Amino acid sequence: MKNPIALETVAENTVFRKGDVFVLFGELFGRGYATGLLDQARKTGMHIVGITVGRRDENNALRPLTDDELSAAEARLGGTIINVPLMAGFDLDAPAKGSTPTDLLAGMTLESWEHDKLDWEYIERCKAVAIARFTNALSQVMAILDGMIADGRNVFFAHTMAGGIPKAKVFLVVANRIYKGTGSRHLSSQALLDSDMGKLILQNFDEVSANTFRHLIDFSAAIRERVEASGGQVRYTAYGYHGTGILIDNEYRWQTYTNYTQGYAKMRLEGIAEDAWAVGVKATVYNCPEIRTNSSDVFTGIELPLIPLLLALKKENGGRWAAEQWRACEELLADGFTVDDVIRKISDLQASEVMIPFYDFSAWPMPNSQAQADLTIGTSNEITRMHRDTKVMISDLLSALVVEATGQLIFGESSSPCGPVRWLNHDVVARRLNASHEEPETAWRSVTPGALDGASSRLEIA
Ligand SMILES: NC(=O)c1ccc[n+]([C@@H]2O[C@H](COP(=O)([O-])OP(=O)(O)OC[C@H]3O[C@@H](n4cnc5c(N)ncnc54)[C@H](O)[C@@H]3O)[C@@H](O)[C@H]2O)c1
């Protein structure tokens, strides 16, 4: 994409209804993005179907969920799980009796990894084994799913898969230093990409975070054709990341977390939606804001652009409810700190000479630098320490709000999606939240001074 095309309108669902089928293509974790979309599907009375990535046994063989695991997962999902393992990526696959790519990485050390070479012809064979395994499993999943969808029903496929970090000790140490290391512990993300280990990991990210979307679209073609022929409609959505427009100096501006190593896979994901769209398949990647989830917690500082959502809530006509969010955030801070203090730290970071070169959409995803990593990670650590309890943070509260809003936005937009790639910036997220929670008469401007106790004094009309 040459420009970040924003989703501008808040649309309502006009297609999906009770008895239609919602397919979650990825597993559900408590605070992940998928929970927001699932809430909408549940409210609509859709029949929910999930998949599993499966589990590895002690010999790394992939197995389905046990009965206990399956019933726990189905209870969490509130639907039926097709119990055929759909783990993507080739990090643990190999031709019979051969070493897996993870085994090959295990031979690398902290001293050697930058220069260690991989046999790419062999890696291609591992990849072919993994793709055959995944697509065979996917054919089985689609055959079962086909029997679960009656003619005339609409179907919503929600792709949520992202990952591909191999469980190799050397990589985990390197990743820790790239995403969490400051000072002498800093490591250049470009050094990783220049190494064979880094090139392998990028390919694995492509397989998990991008190519699975193409497989989903391709392998559901028969279902799509049958459903459409019987008068139903089919939609595909996927979660992208490609920076977010947030309020900086009272203006919505694009910015990004750096270094987002998965960015190449996310651009590939956008390309897959564009290809599908070009042949008439309604597939849309929604590029979503930075939030904290099981997957994103590895990136220290990812929460920094999230916190100014509070400013957007105010700007987009927030009222009593928005003020309550400010106050709830303030209560999470230790004595002596205010939300304003936190936001000031983030504004200082965004305005610094160190960060400005990184807010270049056309150069995304840029490698990290020592100064940028020190500032991002240092600011994140400082803000964490400003909390009363570092296990209950402002970013937890705001992440949950973004999950709720994006679920509503994506679900609403999917009735009549307007393109293959759209950015959900803080403006539309804030508008969606305010529309859901505010009583019309309590819009910010009409809140009586003093009615909001401490919060009101800090939240004068801009
Ligand atoms: N957290 C963020 O800041 C953020 C921002 C924008 C977009 N996203 C995207 O949102 C989506 C959901 O992520 P999330 O942050 O909610 O985290 P999450 O941990 O809840 O979800 C990650 C998903 O990836 C699946 N997955 C992981 N490894 C896999 C593998 N090898 N094979 C198949 N599936 C695998 C998991 O089953 C799960 O469904 C992802 O596409 C992510 O990139 C996240």
The order of strands across the largest sheet is: 5-2-1-6-7-10-11
CATH topology of the domain at 21-299 and 402-439: Rossmann fold
Cα(first) to Cα(last) distance is: 33 Å
CATH class call of the domain at 21-299 and 402-439: Alpha Beta
What is the oligomer described by this structure? Answer: single chain
The ligands bound in this entry are:
nicotinamide-adenine-dinucleotide
What overall geometry do the principal axes of the alpha carbons give? globular
Number of helices: 16
Major pleated sheet: 7 strands, parallel
CATH architecture verdict of the domain at 21-299 and 402-439:
3-Layer(aba) Sandwich
Helix content: 40-55%
The CATH H-level homologous superfamily of the domain at 21-299 and 402-439? NAD(P)-binding Rossmann-like Domain
Mean pLDDT: 94
- Spans of 5+ residues with little confidence (pLDDT < 50)? 444-462
Report the radius of gyration as a whole number of Å. 23 Å
In N-to-C order, the SSE pattern is: EHEEEHEHHEHHHHEEEHEHHHHHEHH
- Strand portion, in percent? 5-15%
How many β-strand stretches? 11
Estimated structural class: alpha/beta
Describe the structure.
By secondary structure, the protein is an alpha/beta fold. It has a domain at 21-299 and 402-439: Rossmann fold (3-Layer(aba) Sandwich), CATH 3.40.50.720. Helix content is 45%, strand content 11%. The chain contains 16 helices and eleven strands. Strands 5-2-1-6-7-10-11 form a seven-stranded parallel sheet, with helices on both faces. β3 (55-56) and β4 form a beta hairpin. It starts with 20 loop residues before the first strand and ends with a helix. Bound molecules: nicotinamide-adenine-dinucleotide. Nicotinamide-adenine-dinucleotide binds at residues 26-27, 29, 32-33, 53, 87-89, 160-164, 208, 239, 241, 288, 290-291, 293-296, 302.
